[in-house]
């Protein structure tokens, strides 16, 4: 017997305690030099997404909001940074980043 | 003449300066904008201008502005100069629109002023804040602008100017010497009735509607045909008091001048009671060596020579003034063209405001000021129109003949002002520069030079000089209304001097 198969994305989403609508999944597009470069060269767009959102949620959300076809979703959990403040050490919040590659014929315009 | 510098804030001037700095030919290379300009007459010296700027011009200006932003814009997530143009256009939309609007307006106004030959005298009546650039289509804006009046120059080349004879006759010298020597004369009291030419000491009481206005306890006046007070004149002064003895009281009616300081009394009739206190005759001194020394001359011939010189200078000064007045009135007489109404109104308001402010400072009540305001308004409009016409004609004369004040002349004028005011030249210059009056001074000099130029080229017709009427008038520093009647220190000294001589 091999490894147990991971749950299907639909199943994974259904098991989650909270329900996320597309606008809660995509928090904001990341308009940066690197993001612009990715969009221009690789037709891939970067977003800050809900930390609980999975790749399947992100794919669905992008497809629903911008009406485009998503080829691939990559995600990164960005750990918060330690910051020294006057009252001691603090920490910035952790966040989740998604890089969404679109179908070659589709595009998103953030600005 | 007031020259409220009707100067157009002409961007072309600055541009021309820049062009010089950048090298010749730059101005010619400047791209012409695609403009549609419609100019209509909107009143006397008023043009209504409608400018349509093509969409392509707006887009070009936007691209230029975006290019400038792209190099420097600080956007989080991007290094400077790496921000995508589309993002700049979106993020700095308002700033870019403002910049494009400004650029398009300045460039198009400059081009309009160059191409249309409007010759404006002030800034266009254009409220930039109300203009909005359209997202699509051409950009249209309209404005009214006052332009320099177009008029045919009166033919001033063969201008004939009457020049009163400047030659001083022996009789005039003698008369002046007599007048001059009166200050060294001696008053001899007389026990007879007063005659014309006598010097009378009078107690004068002025009243209006039975109410006493002002009492002059002691007024010393020579019996001449006209007694001139600071705010009224009495004709037949000699007839009134001739034959009067000490103690006699004579009454006369005087009309208060419209320029009097007491507003409510202007034009009113006032009764003057003249009580004769003493009668005296002024005996002129004989020209002794002592007196000549006191005057500062060696002989009576030298005194006559000095008097002749002084009279000649006075005549020449009067000739110049006379010529100037004749010239200006000839110019204005033939000037039946219209003036820019707004400019007239503005200038008049300035003059009026200045006068009313002076009245306020002098402590007049609001009612008094209001009473005077209408009268002032009428006078101000007429005099402003005349002054403006003079200005425009002289400006044209200066322009046509390339008359400009040199920096040296301007410096001399400022030095002269400093000397008159007893202030350092540098301080006067910096004050003038700070208040922007240097331009006005230059404009005044330019006009003066234009007048001199016209006078140089005029034909003079010698006419006999008018007889001086001064001898008919006895002027005293007293007023009917009682304002400004305080004798100056000089008068007091003079009085003290003559009374000492009397004793």
From TrEMBL, chain A:
InterPro entries: Nucleotide-bd_a/b_plait_sf, Ribosomal_uL23-like, Ribosomal_uL23/eL15/eS24_sf. Keywords: Ribonucleoprotein, Ribosomal protein, RNA-binding, rRNA-binding. The keyword Ribonucleoprotein applies. The keyword Transmembrane helix does not apply. Belongs to the universal ribosomal protein uL23 family. PANTHER family: 60S RIBOSOMAL PROTEIN L23A (PTHR11620). Part of the 50S ribosomal subunit. Contacts protein L29, and trigger factor when it is bound to the ribosome. One of the early assembly proteins it binds 23S rRNA. One of the proteins that surrounds the polypeptide exit tunnel on the outside of the ribosome. Forms the main docking site for trigger factor binding to the ribosome. This is Large ribosomal subunit protein uL23. It comes from Alienimonas chondri. The lineage of its organism: Bacteria, Pseudomonadati, Planctomycetota, Planctomycetia, Planctomycetales. The gene is rplW.
From TrEMBL, chain B:
The gene is tig. Residues 36-176 form the Trigger factor ribosome-binding bacterial domain. Keywords: Cell cycle, Cell division, Chaperone, Cytoplasm, Isomerase, Rotamase. It is found in: Cytoplasm. One of its GO terms (molecular function) is peptidyl-prolyl cis-trans isomerase activity. It catalyses: [protein]-peptidylproline (omega=180) = [protein]-peptidylproline (omega=0). Consists of 3 domains; the N-terminus binds the ribosome, the middle domain has PPIase activity, while the C-terminus has intrinsic chaperone activity on its own. Residues 11-22 have a biased composition (Acidic residues). This is Trigger factor. The keyword Cell division applies. Belongs to the FKBP-type PPIase family. Tig subfamily. It comes from the Bacteria. Involved in protein export. Acts as a chaperone by maintaining the newly synthesized protein in an open conformation. Functions as a peptidyl-prolyl cis-trans isomerase. Residues 301-456 form the Trigger factor C-terminal domain. HAMAP family: Trigger_factor_Tig. Its EC number is 5.2.1.8. The keyword Chaperone applies. Residues 1-24 are annotated as: Disordered.
């Amino acid at each position: 017997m091999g490894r147990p198969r991971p749950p299907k994305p639909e199943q994974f989403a259904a098991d989650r305690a909270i329900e996320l609508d597309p606008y809660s999944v995509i928090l904001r597009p990341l308009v940066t030099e690197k993001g612009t470069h990715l969009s221009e060269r690789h037709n891939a767009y970067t977003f800050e997404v809900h930390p609980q959102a999975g790749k399947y949620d992100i794919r669905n959300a992008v497809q629903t909001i911008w009406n485009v076809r998503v080829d691939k979703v990559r995600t990164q959990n960005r750990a918060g940074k330690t910051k020294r403040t006057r009252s001691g050490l603090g920490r910035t919040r952790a966040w989740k980043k998604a890089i969404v590659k679109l179908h070659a014929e589709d595009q998103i315009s953030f600005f | 003449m007031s020259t409220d510098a009707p100067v157009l804030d002409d961007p072309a001037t600055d541009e021309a300066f820049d062009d010089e700095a950048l090298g010749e030919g730059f101005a010619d290379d400047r791209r012409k904008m695609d403009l549609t300009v419609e100019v209509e007459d909107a009143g006397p010296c008023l043009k209504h201008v409608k400018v349509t700027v093509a969409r392509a011009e707006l887009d070009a200006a936007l691209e230029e502005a975006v290019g400038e932003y792209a190099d420097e814009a600080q956007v989080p997530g991007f290094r400077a100069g790496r921000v995508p143009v589309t993002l700049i256009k979106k993020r700095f939309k308002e700033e870019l629109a403002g910049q494009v609007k400004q650029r398009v307006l300045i460039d198009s106004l400059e081009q309009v002023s160059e191409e249309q030959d409007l010759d404006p005298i002030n800034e266009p009546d254009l409220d930039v804040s109300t203009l909005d650039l359209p997202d699509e289509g051409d950009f249209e804006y309209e404005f009214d602008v006052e332009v320099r009046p177009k008029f045919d120059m009166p033919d001033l080349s063969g201008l004939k100017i009457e020049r009163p004879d400047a030659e001083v006759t022996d009789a005039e010298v003698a008369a002046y010497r007599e007048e001059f020597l009166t200050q060294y004369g001696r008053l001899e009291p007389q026990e007879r009735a007063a005659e014309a030419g006598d010097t009378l000491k009078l107690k004068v009481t002025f009243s209006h509607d039975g109410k006493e206005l002002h009492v002059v306890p002691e007024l010393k006046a020579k019996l001449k045909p006209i007694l001139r007070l600071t705010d009224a004149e009495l004709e037949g002064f000699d007839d009134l008091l001739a034959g009067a003895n000490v103690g006699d009281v004579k009454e006369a009616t005087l009309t208060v001048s419209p320029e009097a300081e007491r507003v409510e009394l202007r034009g009113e009739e006032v009764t003057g009671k003249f009580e004769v206190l003493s009668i005296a005759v002024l005996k002129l001194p004989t020209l002794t060596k002592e007196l000549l020394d006191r005057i500062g001359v060696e002989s009576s011939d030298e005194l006559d020579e000095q008097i002749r010189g002084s009279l000649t200078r006075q005549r020449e000064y009067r000739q110049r003034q006379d010529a100037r007045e004749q010239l200006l009135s000839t110019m204005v007489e033939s000037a039946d063209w219209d003036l820019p109404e707004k400019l007239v109104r503005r200038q008049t308001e300035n003059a009026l405001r200045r006068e009313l402010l002076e009245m306020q400072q002098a402590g007049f009540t609001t009612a008094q000021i209001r009473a005077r305001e209408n009268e002032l308004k009428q006078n101000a409009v007429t005099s402003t129109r005349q002054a403006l016409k003079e200005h425009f004609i002289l400006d044209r004369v200066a322009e046509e003949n390339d008359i400009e004040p040199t920096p040296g002349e301007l410096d001399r004028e400022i030095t002269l002002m400093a000397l008159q005011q007893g202030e350092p030249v540098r301080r006067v210059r910096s004050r003038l520069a700070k208040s922007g009056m240097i331009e006005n001074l230059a404009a005044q000099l330019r006009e003066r030079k234009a007048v001199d130029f016209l006078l140089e080229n005029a034909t003079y017709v010698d006419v006999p000089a008018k007889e001086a009427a001064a001898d008919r008038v006895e002027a005293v520093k007293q007023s009917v209304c009682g304002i400004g009647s305080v004798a100056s220190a000089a008068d007091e000294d003079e009085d003290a001097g003559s009374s000492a001589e009397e004793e």
